[in-house]
Here is the input.
Amino acid sequence: MLDIKFIRKNKEEVAEAIKNKNISLDLERLLELDKEKVKLLQEIEELNSLKNDLNDLIKKTKSDGERKEIIEKGKNIKTKLEIKEPEYKKIKKEYEDLADKVPNVFSEDTPIGKDETENKVIRKSGEPPKFSFKPKDHMALGEALDIIDTKTAAVVSGSRFNYVKNEAAMLQFALIQFVFNLLTDRKIIAKLAKKTNNPSNKPFIPVVPPAMVKEDIMKKMDRFNPIEDRYYLKEDKLLLAGSAEHSLGPMHISQILKEEDLPLRYIGYSTAFRREAGSYGKDTKGILRCHQFDKMEMESFTIPKHGKAEQDFIVAVQEYIISQLKIPYQVVAICSGDMGKPDFRQIDIECWVPSQNKYRETHTSDYMTDFQARRLNTKVKMSNGETELVHMNDATAAAVGRMLIAIIENYQQADGSVKIPRVLQRWMPGKIEIIKNK
Here is the structure.
C-alpha cells in the first residue's frame, strides 16, 4: 500500500496511476476521509485525556459537591465518546477500504496504455525456427509421445488439469535442476550482475516454501484479490498459493534487516493453484493455462536505491535461462493498463510458440518498490542508522508448464520426436538426447 503522506504530497501522480491502471477509485473522497479521520481521532484522544484527568481528580477530591460536579463532567465526556467513537470506526473502515484500492504509482519508462495491446517490445533474441514441415502443437506431440495426458486428468480432476508423464516428467525435473544450479552459481550471477551494473553478486538461496498462505498474509501481500481467482479454504482462513512469491514475500514479515545483509535473493519452487476465473474460453486446450501448475519464482529484498537495478538484473537472469535453452524470445515493457496494481514497473518475457506462430508470455518481473513491504512491515536499518522499508522484486524463473510447451514445440522434429535442449541433457536419466515414439 502507499503511505497516505505520499498520497497527499503526490496527489496528481497517484491520480494518474489510478486512471492509467484502470482502477475505479474516488481519490478526493479518500483524502476527505483522511482529514475527517485525523480530526476525529484527535478529538477522541483529547476526550480520553480529559476523562483520565477527571479520574485522577476524583480520587483526590473529598468534597461531595466537587465529586458530583466531576462525575457530571465525566458523563458528558462519555456521551461525546459514545457518539464520536462509532463515527470514527465507520469513517476509518471506509477510509481503509478506499486506501486498499490505491495502486502503486508507475515508473517513468512504463508505457501508458489501456490493455495488453499497448505493451511495448523492448528487444528480441533468436530467430523463430523454420521447419520443413507443418509444426504440431504441444498436445499433438505430447499425446503421440505419451508424455502429456489431459483426457485422463479431466476424468480424475476436471478440465484444466494434466498428467505430465515419462520423459516430460524427467524433463520437468531437469529444468528445475538446471535453474536451481544456475541461480546458485556465484560466477554466473556475478557475470549477470556486472552486465546490468548491479552492485551485488550474491547468489539466490533455494527454498521450497509452503503451498498455503494465511488470509491476512495474502492481504498484506495484496494478493488476496481477485478472490474469485483463488482457491480459498474459508474455514481454515488459508489460500492455496498462486505462486511461490505469495509465501516467499512474507519471509521477513515484521523484521528489520541489516543493510550489509542485502540484497537477500531467493529462488523458490512450488506447486501453484489458480481458478483462472477471468480466462473463460482462453487457452482451454493443452497445458498453457491450468488450475494447477509448477513454478520457480525469484524473490528479492533490497535497499530502496538498488530496487530498479535489481529488476534489471533479474530480467537478465530470465534472459540467460531462456538463451541457454536456445528458445527465441522477446522482452516486453508492460503498459500501465495491463500491469498489476502493486507494480511500479513490470517487464515480461514471451517465448516463441511455433504452433501459434506468435510469442506467448512465459516470464514476468514485478518491481513493487515498498508497496508490499509497508503492510508486511519489512524494514532495513541503513548504515547511517536510519530505518527504511525495503524494496521488493518478484519474478518468474520458470513457469514449468509453459516452458515445457516452448521446449516441446521449438525442438520438435519431422518424425514427431522432440530433442532435449543440450543444457538439460545432463539432468536427464541416461542423458537422453531425444524423446521418440514408443
